[in-house]
Write a structure and sequence with these properties.
The chain is built from 8 helices and 2 strands; from the N terminus they run H-H-H-H-H-H-H-E-E-H. A hairpin with a 3-residue loop joins strand 1 and strand 2.
Amino acid sequence: MPDGPTLMEKGRGAFAEILDTVLGGLAGRPDVDWHRAPPGRWSSAQIVEHLAISLDGSGRTFAERRARGPMTRRPRGLVARVGSLLIVRWGWFPPGFRAPEPTRPGLRPDPGAVAGRFREGHARFLALEPALVPARRSDLFVKHPVLGDLTFEEWQRFHVVHCAHHAKQIRARLAHGS
């Protein structure tokens, strides 16, 4: 289980820091470092692309839906409820999850392109926040493929935990050269 304050207690400051969390160690690195990975694992470029797809997609969907009327959260199954509790509420990403197909990266993504897409997705989320929180705090949802319908703030917390989870993998690849 997580140590220290939960993401609920940390607030939005943790979301503002995900750019540095994910991209900080990769800044100025040659492409070879971005593409190095253990056998059968994603490279740092693929990890950043995966994070960018998730961040960009959820942000675009919120932007498209913000003009709609109030929504109601659809019922969630046991896996979605437990996953949401662990990840979104407690800030702990359980091992063993596989990325949903639509969020899987390409074989050799361009480091500059994926870093740019990640930055754009982050900026989009930050720009949406004043329009959606608190006005649409509890009546606007975007479906996560495993966790079900999430609010804007729940998606923010998901992205923080998700980015921290993958940032550990990036740091390991850079530290160990694989």
